[in-house]
């Protein structure tokens, strides 16, 4: 089974790295300190600080493992280096119009950076998959939960 690369922008990778560093360098040492202090207070079975601290430490360790795997699997792609800016590829900001002439602008980002409310859609999303390789004027059909829609590519831009 082949898996698609986990594409990510340089800014997205920096955000993952910052979150990892925050958890490892600030939050985890603080929790370790609380757990050590609570453990020294005696009976651990009814010690809320100790129990909560241990639980929080497991959550942080799990998040560190997930972030580490994401960073290891990430393929950083700088959209500014895209050689063919006339077609939709990773990092493109695309204005599309549906059958009712409703315009929508989306930026195709890594799946870890996606935020549909902010107009950033993941590389693996149905709309992004349909738009890949398209040029201005192309019509693309997308199967969405609400049914099939057709979009026309109005404009394609890349960061400078």
Walk me through what this model shows:
This protein is of the alpha/beta class and 160 residues long. Strand 3 (93-97) and strand 4 form a beta hairpin. It has two domains: 6-75, Transcription elongation factor, GreA/GreB, N-terminal domain (Helix Hairpins, Orthogonal Bundle); 79-157, Transcription elongation factor, GreA/GreB, C-terminal domain (Chitinase A, domain 3), CATH 3.10.50. The protein is elongated, with a radius of gyration of 22 Å. The longest helix has 30 residues, at 10-39. The model has no long low-confidence stretch (mean pLDDT 89). The protein has helices at 10-39, 48-73, 126-131; strands at residues 6-8, 74-76, 93-97, 103-109, 120-122, 139-144, 147-157. It has three helices and seven strands, in the order βααββββαββ. The protein has a five-stranded mixed beta sheet. A two-stranded parallel ribbon has the order 1-2. InterPro entries: GreA/GreB_C_sf, Tscrpt_elong_fac_GreA/B, Tscrpt_elong_fac_GreA/B_C, Tscrpt_elong_fac_GreA/B_fam, Tscrpt_elong_fac_GreA/B_N, Tscrpt_elong_fac_GreA/B_N_sf, Tscrpt_elong_fac_GreB.
